[in-house]
Amino acid sequence: MKAGRIAGYAAFGAALTYTLLKVAWIAGSSVGISEMRGLSRADWMAGNISTAGLGIVGAIVALATARSWGMRIPLWLIAVPMWVSAGLLAPFIVLMPAAAVFVAAGWWAPPATAADGTEPTLEPWTFVIVYGSFIVLGAGLAVALPVYAWARFRTALLGTVGQVPAGSTHLAQVPLAWAAAVLATGLAGLRLSWAFGATVGLHPGPRDVWLRLGDVVAAMQILCAVLGVLVLVHRWGKERRFTLPLIATWLGAGGMVGTGFLSMPTILSGDQWAPTGQTFAAHATGTFLTCVAGGLISLVALFLLVERRAAAAENTAARAPAAAG
To answer: What domain of life is recorded for the organism (predicted)?
Structure first.
């Protein structure tokens, strides 16, 4: 528990540092900015407001894992931020070490832009703040969130995939899970095709190794959500620990929903901005479909967790009279 609290405080400090930089930019400060490169004020504000909001959410989630009041927050209020923040940060656990290797090997040099889609030319030290915050926040929550979840929801997380029979919503879970799985697999296939040279949905031009790695990581995260939710719904591998497919679903679907909503402000701003290489149509359509698929997977996982928690409570209540007797 002590390790979880320390990790939570470290993650809180990282999120706060990142958020303060974003707030400074929103307030009009040019600290760390060399040149705006013609980026519209609307896109700049939309990107920074959305990422600052996520920074605030990350700070609250991190602090909740470290403080006693975090155990008393209503489940509905804390579950969604935890779900999304973990999913958003998971890719950085892979991408940041890979970036260090790529730079050291001379395979890639980071562009002078922010890591989250807001694109002025930045001073080099800002990368220490932005990327460093992501690394510390991701690593901190990777320790703090499992400790918190285990302390608070242990009864629902214990056991195997097949330990709890299918519940009353199972007939709805199956078609929802498969609809999301088919849609998400198509999205993952598109990202993998970009990684291996396809150009559908992309502007003409070379795609560097960093962007291709990002495509692969995004596809793998989506496929984790697909595999995880299908294992949970169909009870595949009934003797498998329940937490393994749950974590895959959590990190995958949380990232899909979080990334989608993070992109929405710039999509709706009307400036036709898209990530490097992507057409606006591909970006906007892919974002919307990713939100839909991630939302469906999250909904199915929620049904499963609620039913599993209710079953655990019933078992506890049934054992109480026997223990008393």
So the answer is: Bacteria
Query: What is the torsion angle, in degrees rounded to the nearest 10, for the CA atoms of residue 55, residue 60, residue 65 and residue 67?
Result: 140
Does residue 205 come out as left (phi exceeding 0), alpha (psi in the -120 to 50 range) or beta? left
Distance separating alpha carbons of residues 235 and 147, to the nearest angstrom: 25
- 292 contacts: CB under 8 Å, gap ≥ 6: 180, 183
DSSP 8-state class, residue 270 = T
pLDDT in tens, 25-77: 899 888 888 766 656 677 778 778 888 988 998 999 999 999 999 999 988 78
Query: What are the two backbone dihedrals, phi and then psi, of residue 209, each rounded to the nearest 5 degrees?
Result: -65, -30
How confident is the model over 270-282, as pLDDT tens digits? 767 788 789 999 9
Q: State the angle between helix axes of 41-66 and 124-157 in degrees (0 to 180), rounded to the nearest 10.
A: 50
**C-alpha to C-alpha distance for 168 and 170, rounded to whole angstroms:** 6
Cα separation, 183 vs 223, whole angstroms: 11
pTM for this model (two decimals): 0.83
Dist. CA 25–CA 52, nearest whole Å: 10
- Tell me if residue 86 falls in helix, strand or coil: helix
Q: What angle (nearest 5°) sits at the alpha carbon of residue 297, between those of residues 296 and 303?
A: 90
Quote the CA–CA distance of 169 and 173 in Å, as a whole number. Answer: 6
Contact criterion met (CB below 8 Å) for 13 and 58 = no
73: region left, alpha or beta (phi > 0 left; psi from -120 to 50 alpha):
beta
Q: Tell me the HSE value of 57 on the side-chain side, using a 13 A CA sphere.
A: 20
Amino acid making up residue 138: G
